[in-house]
Amino acid sequence: MQINFPVDFTLLIDDDKVINFYNEKIVNKHDDFNQVISVNSALKALKYLEDASKGLAIKPNLIFLDINMPAMNGWEFIEEYNKLDTDFISSIKIILLTTSNNPDDYKRFKTIDLLEDFINKPLSASLLTTLIESHYKQKTV
Questions:
Q1: 52 touches 45 (CB < 8 A)
Q2: CA-CA distance, 128 to 124, in Å (whole number)?
Q3: Is the pLDDT of residue 14 over 90?
Q4: Helices 42-53 and 74-81, packing angle to 10 deg
Q5: CA distance 107 to 100
Q6: What is the pLDDT of residues 38-80, one digit of tens each?
Q7: Residue 111: is it exposed, middle or buried by C-beta count within 10 angstroms (0-12/13-18/19+)?
Q8: Residues 62, 95 contacting (CB under 8 angstroms)
C-alpha cells in the first residue's frame, strides 16, 4: 500500500549545520512528511533546484528558508529563485524559518506573494502539524 504524504519532499536551507541536523530529525519523525534534505547555503539550494528542474534531483514540495545567511541571504535567494522556471516553482511552498525578530523582515515577508509563512526556529512536531493543517489539508466549507 502506498502512503500519500502531504509533503513528499522537504528542502531545508540554513547555514547552521546543527539547526539543519535538528530540523531534519523533527521533519523525519513527523507522519505527514516523507523525505528531507538540507543544504547549508542559499547558493547550494539554488544549484539543487536547478538540478531538480532538469530532473537530476528530487523536486521539493516545501522549502524552509532561513533569512540570515552569509554569501546570499534568504531575501537574495528569493530574488534568484524567482528567475527559475515558473512552471517548476509554482507548486513549491516556501516558509521562512528564522530567528529574526526584526519587524522589517516580517513586513517584507508580507509583500512577497510566493512566501507562505513566517515562523520562528526551531521546528517542532506541533508546529509541523499546524503547518500541515494550514497549508496542505483541504479546507471544508
A1: no
A2: 6
A3: yes
A4: 20
A5: 12
A6: 999 999 999 999 999 999 999 999 999 999 999 999 999 999 9
A7: exposed
A8: yes
